[in-house]
């Protein structure tokens, strides 16, 4: 960015007053290097140009910060997920083909400005988080002014809990809830995994419910994408019904029933 103080006049500058007068600034024109000009007019022009340059630079930086948010501020356990996209989502069967289509159709609707929630449900390792990330990355590429964030629910809660003891940790409850509330598109990844073993029907702690409720309530007019292994009945047993009902408002469901766990596809024993 240029600064007006950094602009230096050349050493061999030839200057002389001329007979022309600037009525706006009540001063005589000067002949500077064979150009006749009012020095005050010129300074004003230069200042405006610099202000425009500064403003454009700020907008460019803001836009870049919005674009980078997904990559720099997402709360992940597994950073390799940041590489998940539609291009490297390989379809091998009918269900994967259909679910990729459904996700691409949702992307189209988001791009038109529609607001709704997506639920990716089904067993472990079937590509729920992969497709959720693919959606965010496509939204992020399509419009550099939208903000997208991917948050692993368990990791998010762990970081907030850690901030209770560790003052250096910026992930305070307020920081995290403000961050997750502010973004245009949010993925809440692996909902329900934070309460431990999914078969024990444990109730989520008041603390977990309170944080999720805060985020969900504040995002009523924004789109949220949720992935989970857990069915609705179990979710209602874990969190209160009102919270689950809010999360399921205006839901677009993408369910995996037959797809096999991709994490263990190459291992046979
Ligand atoms: N169709 C696919 N093509 C390419 N890679 C895939 C596909 N489905 C899943 N994967 C990869 O397999 C791994 C597991 O997928 P993913 O993390 O999306 O599973 P998940 O359904 O979210 O599982 P969990 O419920 O355990 O979180 C990831 O590395 C993902 O990139
Ligand atoms: Mg997952
Ligand atoms: Zn002038």
TrEMBL record:
Q: How is this protein named in the record? A: ATP-binding protein
Q: Which CDD domains match?
A: AAA
- Kindly list the residue ranges recorded as spanning the membrane: none
Q: Does the keyword Aminoacyl-tRNA synthetase apply?
A: no
Please list the GO biological process terms of this entry: DNA replication
Q: Where is the IstB-like ATP-binding domain?
A: 47-249
The species this protein was found in: Ureibacillus endophyticus
- What GO MF annotations does this protein's record show? ATP binding
PANTHER family per the UniProt record, alphabetical = CHROMOSOMAL REPLICATION INITIATOR PROTEIN DNAA, PRIMOSOMAL PROTEIN DNAI
Q: Would I find Nucleotide-binding among this entry's keywords?
A: yes
Q: Which SUPFAM superfamilies match?
A: P-loop containing nucleoside triphosphate hydrolases
Protein keywords: ATP-binding, Nucleotide-binding
């Amino acid at each position: 960015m240029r600064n007006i103080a950094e602009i230096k006049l050349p050493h061999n500058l030839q200057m002389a007053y001329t007979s022309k007068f600037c009525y706006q600034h009540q001063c005589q024109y000067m002949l500077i290097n064979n150009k006749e000009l009012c020095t005050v007019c010129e300074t004003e022009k230069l200042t405006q140009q610099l202000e425009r340059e500064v403003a454009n630079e700020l907008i460019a930086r803001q836009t870049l910060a919005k674009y980078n948010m997904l990559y720099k501020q997402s709360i992940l356990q597994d950073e390799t997920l940041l590489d998940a996209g539609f291009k490297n989502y390989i379809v091998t069967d009918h269900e994967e083909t259909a679910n990729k289509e459904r996700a691409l159709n949702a992307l189209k609707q988001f791009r038109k400005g529609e607001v709704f929630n997506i639920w990716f449900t089904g067993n472990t390792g079937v590509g729920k988080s992969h497709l959720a990330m693919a959606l965010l990355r496509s939204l992020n590429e399509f419009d550099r002014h939208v903000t997208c964030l991917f948050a692993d629910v368990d990791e998010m809660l762990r970081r907030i809990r850690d901030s209770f003891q560790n003052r250096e940790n910026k992930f305070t409850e307020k920081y995290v809830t403000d961050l997750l509330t502010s973004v245009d598109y949010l993925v809440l990844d692996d909902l329900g995994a934070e309460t431990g073993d999914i078969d024990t029907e444990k109730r989520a702690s008041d603390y977990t419910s309170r944080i999720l409720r805060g985020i969900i309530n504040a995002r009523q007019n924004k789109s949220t994408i949720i992935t989970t292994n857990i069915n609705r009945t179990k979710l209602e047993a874990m969190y209160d019904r009102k919270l689950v009902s809010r999360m399921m408002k205006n839901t677009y469901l993408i369910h995996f029933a037959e797809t096999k766990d991709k994490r263990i596809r190459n291992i046979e024993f």
